[in-house]
Amino acid sequence: MHFNSFALCLGLAGLAQAHMEMISPAPFKSKDNPHAGSDVDYSMTAPLEASGGNFPCKGYHSLFGTAQGASVADWDAGSQQTMKITGGANHGGGSCQASLSFDKGKSWQVIHSYIGNCPAAGTSSFDFKVPSDAPSGEAIFAWSWFNQIGNREMYMNCAAVTIKGGSKRASAMSNRPAMFVANVGNGCTTEESSDLEFPDPGPDVSNDSQKTAGPKGTCAKAGSGGGSGSGDGDGAAPSAAPSAPADNGNNGGNNGAAPSAPAGGNDGSYNPGNDGGSGAAPSTPAAPPAPTKPASDTPDVYVPPSSSATDSGPNSQTSSPGGVFVTAPQPAESTAAPSAPSAPADDGAGSSTLLTMTKPAPAAPTSVVTPEPAPSAPTPPAAPSAPDTGAGAGAGGSGTEEKAGSACTEEGQWNCIGGSKYQRCASGAWSVVQSMAAGTTCSGSKTQAMAFGFGRKLAFRFRRA
Length: 465
Prior knowledge:
CATH architecture of the largest domain: Distorted Sandwich
Structural class: mainly beta
Low-confidence stretches: 1-17, 224-244, 246-371, 380-395, 455-465
Protein name: Spore coat protein SP96
Signal peptide: 1-18
Distance between the termini: 20 Å
Strand content: 15-25%
Number of strands: 23
Keywords: Signal
Region (Disordered): 189-406
Organism: Gibberella zeae (Wheat head blight fungus)
């Protein structure tokens, strides 16, 4: 029995891996940001919420202009710069964009698009040129990513930067397209197993893809992103006024006038002046293919900004199937019953990795969540009973939501709220409330181990002894 329990621990640890995150320039609330202090987001690799509730920047763009959101890099207009992405689960790569916002995150202009192999497994660098007509002053730089394999998601990290020697013209960067937005409840989705072909990638593009596909639904059309960096609205406007994802409390008005949007939805771009989109929700993609064998090493990969057509075949990089991704610190050897390892006592280390568990492929496609009209939510299958954690875990979480940033005493403690949301005690303070991934639930409240149910499997969070 002892051997079986230990083998299960090793199996779970072997599946653990991290998603991807930008580390340079250092994003808001990143552990690499010297201005973050103790308010660090240890789930920086998590995607944006499917509802779009924390778009853009996971809501952290609200720190812009504060001491915690101070600039981390000085860039000259017209200069060559590099962003660095790292992590262990690049989900087949995909397509990324580098964008700038000069109005505190209300609108975004693309400065470089990367189609295919973005990001690569391990640590990779991506070059781009700061537009020579970029306005001088502080701005928000964003890395956005649409993964090739796995759940249809959008990832986004943002950092404060300072542009020097730039343009003072009202039409600065008016020929740049708006950042592409999808998979956040705005009526636009991306296809699985293909690299996203951006409808309007802009003038600076790197293409390293073997297979591309355009987005589905009511998405952005080719055309200038418009709007001036100074926020006076004199730049060229998009071809249609996009609808925003669900209102997250940070929405504002547009800087420049735009034509009325066509009936039935939005164009895939983010518009803070519109509170929701409409149109029928498209079906989700088919189940992903089996993953390739992980590489034994994940070396740094350098990706130049120019297009390359010399590759003879697909990238032999680590890929992961679609599934539910939850954080799980690597457990120590357990003496619990063989059905599941017990949670060891907390030693304050708090180190964790990311556990990727594959849920069974659905028998038929389901609908993605859109703000309007609201489809009927499918009833998730009953999750197996979670092991006794000693904290009263049941069929659903009974924890009470704690105010983000309020003090807590049990470092690493989890708080399951209503079975659909959770937060954690980190660095002596409660984190922001996070939504569970689609089709999963949590159980228990304010405990050191929390069970997640999906399909007929359970994933467990543990504190390492």
